Amino acid sequence: MENSEYGKYGVAVAVSFVLLSMVLMRKKKEKKVGVAVKVGGEEGFAVRNAGHNGLVPAPFAGVTTVASLFQLICECYSGQVLFLTRKLINKDIVTARDGSKLEKLYLADRPTWKTYDHVYYRVRIFAAGLVEFGHDIDTRVAIFSEPRDKCQFVLQGCFRQAITVVILDASLSEEDLVHCLNEGVMITHGNLVAAAAAVKNVIRRLKRDDVYMAYLPLTHISELAIEWGDTNLSRVGPPLSCCYIKLVSWEEGGYTISEKPMPRGEVVVGGLGVTMGYFNNDMETMKVYKVDEGGMHWFYTGDIGQFHPDGCLEIIDKKVLKFRITVFPEYSSAGKTTPLPCQLFPFTEANSWLFLAMDPEPAANLRGFPSLQPYCSMAESRKSLGGSTT
């Protein structure tokens, strides 16, 4: 009888250990990646990154601009390779199965490389050139080019002089080019630096011999600092360290933050990574951007999401099918010196824009758009930069 009782106790203890292990294992699996936080603005259910008590403004102390971040990195990794590129040998137009025309590029087998210190030298030369030609913080630069490394020299040179820049891809239509000049998304240095800090916190195991392959390094802001999220209907993870994510009830659609077990609502992003609005378009800005009582900017995405118990956001629906701008202007400085770091085809400074094209072909395309003539006049521009007007 005694042994039987001991046997019962033994089974009970064993079962308890099993249950406890299961609970602990479940808790381990459900590690919090996002935690609730009190924020200003419209009422909602807000979550921050669980790894940080507040927003992280920069990847390194004292870094407040893209220019200062680039300088720090170049000085730290001066002898390392920054750019590996393959020279364009030829290109051809081919017809796809669906009848569409595609451009086929023929590239050199061997890549060429440039180190951080080499690129940084050329960036400084370019930046000094802008000052020499009288350009300052009031200048606005439009870079019109296909993606290539030399565009980064110009862009980073612009960052050094705090000149506003808009990037125009050579494949854009005339309508899109005009739209980008008049109604782009306004992104600050603080936005990009905070986003870089978020990327650094997410990708912790990067080593010096790792390589990042960039197919579109010019027009996509994510090539400078990877942006948050993916608007497909799926789990997109927790908030990055540079922003808060808040769900705001959408009663008309049947999504509320009071729902159990997971609150649901429109996804609203606030914090250091949120852009300032649309250039020259206050009406559209007011539709999707709000500023709370503490001065924090909030962007209303139009996506519907729900938070899982671990703080992970899932996109489950869309509030509206809204227009999304795909080409983002940036802010910084531009420059140019003797000798020039690349072949530039300068355009006019009319309407407060200084146009710079990297190659003859995009330059010719740009001049061929009638709607851009108020912006682009080859003769005026070359005259303003001391070049030939022929």
TrEMBL record:
Q: Which cofactor does it need?
A: Mg(2+)
A Pfam family recorded for this sequence: AMP-binding
The transmembrane residues are 6-25
Coiled-coil regions, chain positions: none
InterPro entries in alphabetical order = AMP-dep_synth/lig_dom (IPR000873), ANL_N_sf (IPR042099)
Q: Which domain of life is it from?
A: Eukaryota
Q: Which UniProt keywords apply?
A: Membrane, Transmembrane, Transmembrane helix
Q: What pathway is this protein said to act in by its record? A: Lipid metabolism; fatty acid metabolism
**GO CC annotation, single:** membrane
> MF terms per GO, please?
long-chain fatty acid-CoA ligase activity
Every copy of the AMP-dependent synthetase/ligase domain together lies at 104-183
Q: Does the keyword Acetylation apply?
A: no
Q: Supply the PANTHER family for this chain.
A: LONG CHAIN ACYL-COA SYNTHETASE 8 (PTHR43272:SF92), LONG-CHAIN-FATTY-ACID--COA LIGASE (PTHR43272)
Name assigned to this protein: AMP-dependent synthetase/ligase
Q: Which organism is it from?
A: Corchorus olitorius
